[in-house]
Amino acid sequence: MLTRIAAWRLRTKAAVAVGLILVLVLGLNTFFSTRLLVRELRQGLQVKALVLGGLLVKDIRKVLDFGLGLKDLEDASARCRALVEEYPDLGQAMVVDAAGTIVFHNEDAQVGRPAGSALPPGVAEAREPLASTSVAGGESVSNTVLPIRDGGGSYVGAVIIGVRGSAISGRVNANIRTALVT
User: H or E segment at 151?
Assistant: First the structure.
């Protein structure tokens, strides 16, 4: 093989070397651009989850201010279901109580079960939204966890909005295909 390459003309060797360098540089550029794209997409979808979860927390606080409890909310499961149906990037939406039990969920079968890995440790003490990762429907979900506090500042539960991992990878794949075609 080396004797075969040695027999090439200088022009051929230069063209092959330039071609290999070009492929290497383009590959590295694609790799780093894709990593940046994934990070930005994930962050953008997490901001969407944060805003939607914040609106749900605000509505729940209004009910709590009237002296009602989390379980007294009407149609909260329907609202969680509507969020996931309206925004296909979302994989789950749920409300959990202070014990970590799911009170409302976009899938009725999940109600009454523990939230598990979707609820990160320390959420009861948190004053800001937290992030966690869990599995829902067989795929990875990046969750935004917003603690709910009553008028006295006591922790009463949390709203968890999860972004599907496939939503991010699907958009990245579409962007890469578009970049390769153009």
Answer: none
Give the residue from 129, 153, 137, 156 showing the smallest Cα distance to 47: 129
First to last CA, the chain: 36
* 3-class DSSP state of 71: helix
Q: Which two tokens stand for residue 172?
A: 């990245």
- Angle among Cα 97, 122, 58 to the nearest 5 degrees reads 50
Instruction: Give the model confidence (pLDDT) of 16-63 as tens digits.
Output: 899 999 999 988 988 888 888 888 888 888 899 999 999 999 988 888
Instruction: Look up the pTM and report it.
Output: 0.78
The answer to whether residues 115 and 98 touch, using CB atoms and an 8 Å cutoff, is no
| Concatenated DSSP letters of 10-45 | HHHHHHHHHHHHHHHHHHHHHHHHHHHHHHHHHHHH
The Cα–Cα gap between 91 and 114 comes to: 17
Report CA-CA distances (Å) from 63 to 44, 98, 166: 29, 16, 34
- Residue-wise pLDDT for 90-135, tens only, equals 989 999 999 989 999 998 888 889 988 888 988 889 889 998 888 8
